[in-house]
Design a protein that fits this description.
Strand order of the largest sheet: 1-2
Radius of gyration: 30 Å
Helix content: over 70%
Shape: elongated
Structural class: mainly alpha
Order of helices and strands: HHHHEEHHHHHHHHHH
Length: 346
């Protein structure tokens, strides 16, 4: 009897020890888990909107601040191109024969392509046109085409994507097949053909329309996917039950939900548009912007013949094009990671 009591007492002691160990382990891990969960948001004030969180996150990234400053600088340069060009005392199409050497095939006088107090970034060979004035005017042309084409792409793509995702059925089938057809078409060949055939049309307007014609399916697919996930949300169903029409639901409930990914995608579209315009202008007079209207791609194409004798003429427009594309790309990547994190992972 005594042995049985001792054995029972030992089993009870072991059970109490196991229970204490089991109770102790969650107690130790719970604060750590809570701290890990609260760590990413400990500095975020309660009730912050997604846009407030985005601004807070953008301020924390030094690369984003630098790229944003560069983007704003290029935008101000494009907006104030006539005023900035006049600061140097030369217009983009004004020749300065005194800045070139007629006995050396029109090479710029002085070192580094004629850089000096009269011409801040040097001059073009043969013509003597001021590079600073032409680069600033080229920024206006390149960014104007890029922004206008992006606006067309975003407007058409957003409208088509929302319509396809919300209405579904035949509307979705028709728009989806149109997206596939447009994306499978050899867009670069078609752009070159149209720009070469249309001789008497405003080149800036034509390039904007042609570039925008082939860019909208990418935005439409992103918006369509977002709309498919939004149209069955509780607040959309509640608005539908309350008697709201399709237009009100699309503009008040669905469109704000897709605004974040669209803004992130838009910022990533702009550097591609700048590169496309530069590539088309680089191909020649029959395709891109016509001289004497300056463009970065056109200047790079013209400088290829002088890159051995006057490398500065080639470097300056190339650096401006590189900085613009890089700044917009870094800014777009950051906005995508913040506003559309799931899309950034995929």
């Amino acid at each position: 009897m005594t042995d049985n009591r001792v054995a029972a007492s030992q089993r009870a002691d072991h059970q109490r020890a196991d229970q204490q160990t089991a109770d102790h382990q969650p107690a130790a891990s719970q604060p750590a888990a809570a701290e890990a969960t609260a760590a990413p948001t400990k500095d975020v004030p309660p009730g912050s909107s997604p846009w407030q969180l985005a601004r807070r996150e953008l301020r924390r990234r030094p690369t984003v601040r630098v790229s944003l400053c560069v983007v704003l600088l290029f935008v101000l340069m494009a907006v104030g191109a006539p005023w900035l060009g006049s600061l140097g005392g030369w217009s983009p199409n004004e020749f300065d024969k005194s800045a070139i050497d007629p006995y050396l095939a029109g090479q710029p006088l002085g070192s580094f392509g004629g850089i000096g107090s009269a011409h801040w970034l040097g001059v073009e060979p043969v013509t003597g046109r001021d590079l600073f004035a032409r680069v600033v005017a080229g920024a206006q042309v390149s960014l104007l085409i890029a922004f206008a084409a992006t606006a067309i792409v975003v407007a058409v793509g957003t409208a088509a994507g929302i319509a396809a995702g919300y209405f579904g059925g035949r509307v979705d089938a028709v728009l989806s097949r149109l997206m596939d057809l447009t994306m499978s078409f050899p867009s670069l060949i078609f752009m070159i053909a149209m720009l070469s055939v249309a001789k008497d049309v405003n080149r800036i307007v034509l390039m904007t329309a042609v570039i925008g014609l082939f860019g909208w399916p990418g935005v439409a697919r992103v918006v369509r996917g977002q709309t498919l996930s939004l149209k069955h949300r509780e607040y959309v169903d509640a608005a539908r039950v309350a008697g709201a029409g399709s237009w009100r639901i699309l503009t008040r409930d669905v469109l704000p939900g897709v605004a974040g990914p669209v803004i992130a995608y838009t910022t990533l579209l702009i550097p591609g548009m700048i590169s496309t315009e530069a590539a088309l202008s680089y191909l020649g007079v029959g395709v891109g912007v016509r001289p004497p209207t300056p463009s970065w791609g056109q200047m790079i194409a013209e400088s290829v013949a002088y890159y051995e004798t006057d490398p500065v003429y080639f470097v300056i427009p190339s650096v401006f094009l590189f900085l613009a594309v890089l700044a917009f790309t870094l800014l777009g990547d950051a906005l995508r990671d913040i506003l559309d994190p799931r899309g950034g992972r995929t």
